[in-house]
Design brief:
Blueprint (H helix, E strand, L loop, with lengths): L1 E2 L5 E2 L7 H8 L5 H13 L8 H26 L1 H7 L14 H19 L2 H18 L9 H25 L5 H20 L5 H7 L4 H5 L1 H25 L3 H21 L3 H32 L3
Antiparallel strand pairs: 1-2
Helix pairs in contact: 2-3, 2-7, 2-13, 3-5, 3-6, 3-7, 5-6, 6-7, 7-8, 8-11, 8-13, 11-12, 11-13, 12-13
């Protein structure tokens, strides 16, 4: 029983509130992997109309299930810290009571694996890797999030590379073409830099809690420059590949997007902590548009389009 300030008594929850479960799964985070999955679908060259039921299942897998699992796992293993810093979060607030945060993470993992299994062996394998990284990121003994090199790599793979691979594999029902895999891998590497941007807002807290994010390890200025290099270089490699694949128009589009990003990066490095959110809304948007342009470039290789 919980006593209220007015002396009233209200029973503790035994089951999580539905709205709290949705909040625990953080739908706002689902966009990135679903976008990458869409790029995989486009890059496959297979007409969407032929496989749209499978595409819907793949979207469910990449966003609400695998990404949602990662959010539930993270909140469960961070519940003690959240009780101090964010007591209104679903678990510390009691809206997701007892061990339900852990149960939801386990149930969601099982559902994600089951859905992945229905979409073929390549998708199933990608789903299992994504789930393994989701747990390793937050759960002991790995706790990849404690080190920015490993934690950011895990998130980047789950948000970009694996969903892109999944989208293509759903459409082709076989292992995707090597050019598709190359794009997925390159944009996944670039996303490592994007993940660094999210660390600037928590430098002081990370320092106190012993979280070795890259801004903590390298300093804010050096980490910002590194993030910019890591974001830009893979895109330049993509431009080179598009030229080699005789896709000059798409190469020009991606080049233009990179040039604008480089201009924005010069402002970012002057004040990384103050402008990280601004860059996420501007430069990162251009980054993901380049992903889509690259996906259409590869699609044209398979369909004979421009």
């Amino acid at each position: 029983m919980t006593s209220l300030s007015q002396g009233q008594v209200t029973p503790q929850r035994r089951l999580p509130a539905p709205t709290a479960v949705v909040e625990l799964l953080k739908p706002i985070t689902w966009f990135a992997p679903m976008w990458a999955l869409g790029c995989g679908v486009v890059s496959s060259g297979v007409p969407v109309v032929e496989r749209w039921p499978l595409i819907l299942m793949a979207i469910l897998l990449a966003g609400p299930l695998v990404c949602g699992t990662s959010q539930a796992v993270n909140d469960w293993f961070d519940r003690h810290v959240d009780a101090i810093n964010e007591p209104d979060r679903p678990i510390p607030s009691g809206r997701v009571p007892g061990r339900w945060g852990l149960y939801i993470a386990i149930i969601w993992s099982a559902v994600a694996a089951a859905v992945g299994a229905t979409l073929g062996p390549w998708v199933f394998g990608a789903a299992l890797i994504g789930l393994a990284l989701a747990w390793a990121y937050s759960a002991p003994p790995f706790r990849l999030k404690k080190n920015g090199w490993w934690g950011n790599a895990a998130v980047a793979a789950c948000y970009e590379g694996l969903p892109w691979f999944t989208g293509a594999a759903v459409m082709t029902a076989i292992v995707p073409d090597g050019r598709i895999v190359a794009l997925a891998a390159l944009y996944s590497v670039g996303a490592h830099g994007i993940m660094v941007l999210n660390d600037f807002k928590a430098v002081d807290g990370d320092t106190q809690m012993g979280v070795r994010s890259l801004p903590v390890q390298l300093g804010v200025k050096v980490a910002a420059r590194l993030a910019c290099v890591v974001m830009a270089l893979p895109q330049l490699v993509v431009v080179g590949l598009l030229i080699a694949w005789d896709r000059p128009i798409h190469a020009a589009i991606v080049s233009g997007l990179v040039v604008v990003q480089l201009g924005l990066m010069t402002r970012l490095v002057r004040d990384p902590k103050g402008r990280a959110a601004w860059y996420n809304a501007t430069g990162t948007t251009l980054y993901v548009l380049g992903m889509l342009a690259s996906a259409f470039a590869v699609r044209g290789l398979f369909t004979g389009g421009a």
